[in-house]
Amino acid sequence: MRMVYFAWVRERVGVSEEDVLPPASVATIADLVDWLSGQSTAHAAAFAQRDRLRAARDQAFVSLDTPIDGAKEIALFPPVTGG
Amino acid sequence: MRMVYFAWVRERVGVSEEDVLPPASVATIADLVDWLSGQSTAHAAAFAQRDRLRAARDQAFVSLDTPIDGAKEIALFPPVTGG
Amino acid sequence: MIRVLVSEAPIDVGAEMAIAEAAGGTQGGAVATFTGLVRGDDGVTELTLEHYPGATERALEELCTKASRRWTLSGVTIIHRVGPMRPGERIVFVAACSAHRAAALDACAFLIDRLKTDAPFWKRERVGGSTRWVDARHADDTAAAKWRS
Amino acid sequence: MIRVLVSEAPIDVGAEMAIAEAAGGTQGGAVATFTGLVRGDDGVTELTLEHYPGATERALEELCTKASRRWTLSGVTIIHRVGPMRPGERIVFVAACSAHRAAALDACAFLIDRLKTDAPFWKRERVGGSTRWVDARHADDTAAAKWRS
Fold it and tell me: Which of A55, B3, C5, C75 is deepest in the core (most CB within 10 A)?
């Protein structure tokens, strides 16, 4: 599964995208964030403030409690600031 | 005193402006409209629908019951339709 | 900055936007505009705008001043075309420039709503071989009235 | 007509207005627009917009579709610039075209309010020698929420 990161989440993780293979126990995006946080201190730092983290599942905005459910691409990023 | 007319008021009166000398008894714009209506059938026809008549006194919108009070220019016209 | 122009020339929205933005300076982050176009429905082939020279400019400037008192604006523009024009051409362009988008959007709506009832313009339409004066719309009075306070 | 464009090129408001008006045809008598500019207050010398390619266009098209369902519109435009830009330059241009001015004005306000919270853009400011990510504003959530129903 492809992970993509934006803005300061991208900067803290240290890469803009990466392929990951989470274990079967990782059901939701929140589970995925927890699992990634255990993989490296950079991920842990990027995802530390869970209330400032937003997600998209296959390019559609979703809440963190959304099941991954075979998604091809999960994006993690801060609250948006466009316009 | 200068009278100016616009849109279908102008067309019905037959001139776009004229100088008038109303008698001293003509105090308000409504009085002026009454007096002018007695001057010609064209004026009477132009001012027949009093509720569709609007006025300006020295280029500022006013209601018909406003005193003339030494005005240099009185305008009479239909409700506006700009924009 | 208040900019009012009543002219027979076509309205250049790109140029007017540049003027409005420049006047707003680097503090004016939001520009809301409204453009009214001649509609070609009901077989209208030409629209002619008559106005009250002098009084028109005065009424439009007063409207800009009212908007500037009500909202914090760095610029207010009203450009109104007069004379003959054809379907699709611009009749009016209003712009409100502010540091905040809500002020720009509200001021823009205020300007066009009040312009419809407070400025001396009269529309005459040509349909086929004849012309007719456009009647004032009750809806315009209602829209303008919502800004009174 | 729905027109969505995300690009590093400067936004040409005059050209975009002409496109929006042409799409509206002679039935679309009212065009409301909102333009957001880079503000130079607080010593900001450059603003860089990052976005989520693909997802951004999809979010903006969805927003246009929502506006078209809510109001009777003949055209909806969202042009958003990305990459580096300087104070005074245009970040975003939205336009709503309708036969009726209230629909155009309301749809325009809806589009810019919702764009602030519903599209994946992130702003980074340069002040002097350092850069900082702009924080999301609570006021934007409040403005966007007023359109939910």
Answer: C75
